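So, is this right?
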Amino acid sequence: MVRKARVVKAARRPEVRLPELVAWSDGEVVPDGDYDGLEFRDADLAEQDGGGARFMDCALTACALDGTGLNHARVLDSVLTGIRGVGTDLAEATLRDVELVDARLGGTQLHGAVLERVLVRGGKIDYLNLRKARLKDVVFEGCVLVEPDFGGARLERVEFVDCVLKGADLTAATLVDVDLRRAAELDIARGVDRLSGAAISHAQLLDLAPVLAAAMGLRVAEAD
C-alpha cells in the first residue's frame, strides 16, 4: 500500500484595500498613538517612540525607522513600502493583514510578535529576530533573509517563495505546514532537526544531507 504524501496547506495572503488616505503631518509618533487612514511618506521616524501605537489602514512609504520604538504596536490592514532602518523595535507587536514590500532592514526586533496574513515581498532583511514569535499565513516572496532567528517560534502555513534564507536558526521552533520547496536558497545553520512539519524538495534534501547527518550524529565514510 502506497501512502500519499500529505498536502501542505497554503498560506492565506493578505488582501489589503486601503481607503483614500490623509497625509500625516505631525512631527513624530507618540506612545499609544492612534493612526487611522494615514499616509506616512518619506517620514523620518528614527529614534522615535511609538510603543503601543495602532496603525490601521495606513501606508508607510520610504520611511526611516532606525531605532524606532514600536514595541507592542498593532499594524493592521496596512502597506509598508521601501521602509529602511537598523534596530527597529517591534517586539511583541501584532501585524495582521500587512504587506511589507522592498524593505531594507537590519537587526529588526520582532521577538514575541504575532504575524497573521502577512506578505513580505522583495527587499533584504538582515538578522531578523523572530524568537518565540507566532507566524500564521505568512509568505516571504522574492526577499533575502540573512541569519533570521526563528528560535522557539511557531510557524503555521508559512511559505518561502523565490526567497533566499542564509544561516536560518530554527532552534526549538515548531513548524506546521511550512513550505520551503520554492525557496531560491535554503541554508539552515541551527535547528535542522525541527524540520518536521515542513516540506522541502528533493534537491534541498540533498543539499541539507550533511547538516542532517551532523544533527543525527551520523558519520559518513567510504568503506575500506
